[in-house]
Amino acid sequence: MLEYFIIIAILLVLTIPIIALFFSEYNSIVRETNSYHSIRWLLDLDNDIRNIKYQGNGSYIVKNYPYPIALDSISIQYQGMNTIISYNITNLGQITFIYPFKIIINDTRWRGRLTLNITNSNGDIAINRID
User: Fold this and answer.
1) Which among 39, 101, 108, 109 has the fewest CB atoms less than 10 Å away?
2) DSSP assignment of 32-80, as one string?
3) Per the confidence metrics, is the pTM higher than 0.85?
């Protein structure tokens, strides 16, 4: 009977570090994937904003965006005719985009799947969330 306990103890001593390493690597991969999706989403949104701006007055796009899991907050600042939009990403910190035109975002509390309407109105870009 004692032999069985010794064998089980040896197996536990050998397998627990392997299991701990597996979960550690799994969590690391999940964090990196979330960060990658956040950056991909931001670049996609930036591309759509710039395309609508340069397509001219009256152009618009209504698009579903997958929510970036790691997005904490969005802040907007205006400096003359420039717009500075800062996205706070959990594992990456703050990512900032500067646009040489005015962007108006009505609601910056984006949660869940997003459907955004990006419209060019006389050179200003309006971003509205559609629920």
Assistant:
1) 109
2) HHHHHHHHHHHHHHHHHHHHHHHH-TT-EEEEEE---TTEEEEEEEEET
3) no
